[in-house]
Amino acid sequence: MFQNARRDQVRRLVDEGTQLVEVLERRQFDLAHLPGAIHIPAWELTPARAGAELDRDRPVVVYCFDNL
């Protein structure tokens, strides 16, 4: 299931154990990633990579910087 979430919703979800994945480029991630975020660049977010790095029993929020 996909849906947009506000900052306060994401904070609550992460506090409750949700995994936060940032799909930013390495340079962007290094400059300003969210605390506790897992870095998997968008072009590397494959089922195999996700399966290797994420806990299937926990929800996931995927985040990408959007300057809109």
Report a brief summary of the structure.
By secondary structure, the protein is an alpha/beta fold. The chain has 3 helices and 3 strands. Strand 1 (19-22), helix 2 (26-32) and strand 2 form a beta-alpha-beta unit.
Textual characterization of the structure:
By secondary structure, the protein is α/β, with parallel strands linked by helices. The chain is 34% helix and 15% strand. The protein is built from 3 helices and 3 strands, in the order αβαβαβ. A 3-stranded parallel sheet has the order 2-1-3, with helices on one face. Strand 1, helix 2 and strand 2 form a beta-alpha-beta unit. The two termini are 23 Å apart. The relative contact order is 0.25. The model has no long low-confidence stretch (mean pLDDT 88).
The rounded distance between the terminal residues' Cα atoms is 23 Å
Order of helices and strands: HEHEHE
Work out the number of β strands: 3
Range of strand content: 5-15%
Unreliable sequence segments: none
Mean pLDDT: 88
Largest sheet: 3 strands, parallel
Main structural class: alpha/beta
The strand order across the widest sheet is 2-1-3
What share of the residues lie within helices?
Answer: 25-40%
Shape: globular
